[in-house]
Amino acid sequence: MNITHISAECYPIAKVGGLADVVGALPKYQNELGLKSSVIMPFYDNKFSKENEFVSICKSEVLLGVYDHKFEVLKLKKNILEFDVFFIDIPTLLFKDYVYSYEDTDRFLAFQIAALDWMLALEDKPNIIHCHDHHTGLVPFMLQESFKYTSLNKIPVITTIHNAQYQGWFAYNKLHLIPPFEMNNAGLLDWNGMINPLAAAIKCAWRVTTVSPSYMEELKIEANGLQDLLKQESQKCVGILNGIDIKVWNPETDVYIIENFSEKNVTLGRGKNKNWLCETFNLDKTKPLFAFIGRLVGEKGTDLLPEVFDTILKEKECNILLLGSGHNEVEEQLNALKEHHKGNYDAFIGYDEKLSHIIYAGADFLLMPSRVEPCGLNQMYSLRYGTIPIVRSTGGLKDTVIDIEDKNGFGICHNEVTVLQIEQAIKRGVSLYNNQERFKEIRKNIMKIDHSWDASAKEYIKLYNSIN
Ligand code: ADP
Ligand code: GLC
Q1: Which ligand is nearest to the CA of 348?
Q2: Are 134 and 164 in contact (CB under 8 A)?
Q3: Which domain covers residue 281, as residue numbers?
């Protein structure tokens, strides 16, 4: 079975968040299970495109409204990934040194049209088209409705919602950019008076998945306006928990971390990573280290962190290290705290893949006070590296972390996203750390939890088989 994933991100080529990790891993595991899985993504002006050589496999023009844009389909010259990636290069629109910006409607619409135009010409057509998030949300609609893609409309198409907060809305003055279709069916594009690519995907895709079972249930109650649509379409919706790429995220072989380790030498190995973090960020080695890694946005609960950190750090019982970027105001507040809590706190505002790995390998606890978390990969990376997760029980966090007070528990969970509950959760972490015997036992056990892609990749195959 030939599977074509269409996505804006794919690790290690272009990554903003977890979407990249998923699209960079799932095809690998699908190929191992005997499928032929590949990815179509935009060609960006980034480190990866500068450092690798590509060959052209097709040159054409894509019509966006009344303008033709030159485009080329590229492939890597050397097969360095474990799956094929086809890059859509549209120099006038897509080839930028960023993935997302304010002009995304035109960029990603052109990307989707070019991808389908190219597919029209392919002899070997995919058996399944698997779209990811709203950037590819018009693919199911165009396949079903646009006259020029009639020959592709029998190909089953799936949409995976990684995050329903972002829907890609745009106004009707851009309707003419979508290749001609029967205007009586324009309602399929609409949600609340706007063209809504995610809503169109939910209506037109043959199946809709989200990245954890709990998030699927939550979406039927609150989905940034799409809850009624998801309830209405629930018979074709299913939640499949993400996995992690255990080849990339393996503390025994990870090339980014200071010292490799396994469950057998976890104390020594993690100790060296923690020492490096404490020396680099001027923290106190003798105290527990709590970390946060991620986007500083409302969904992640990070607007509450400056107040939480300021209160907790006054007690001088722990260290806190944050890696992330996002809302300016939160960044400023996090930076301002450095002055007041020297020796126990630091924040690295920015994106740093290597540092993130060292934090998973060296911090004692990882904080995830998310208001919304469709799946969350950070907690699964932490578990694999022996960092105890402290999470708000929601979405994928609810499906992957059990509180230490419950049967077979190994993490710290809280129900509300409030300053008080996050503080209490951190204090529970400090108490657990002070009971070194229990702390170390939990740490060893969590490293054995299996969140590899194997099980979820099989669930996707079942889903593909049900519609192919
Ligand atoms: P989301 O996709 O909502 O941001 P996930 O938990 O699914 O959240 O995935 C986040 C991914 O991005 C993880 O691989 C995490 O390590 C990485 N990440 C997030 N912020 C940073 C950062 N500032 N520096 C390095 N890696 C980051
Ligand atoms: C989104 C979600 C995150 C999920 C990731 C990968 O970015 O916010 O929870 O883990 O996609 O599916």
Answers
A1: 1
A2: no
A3: 263-446
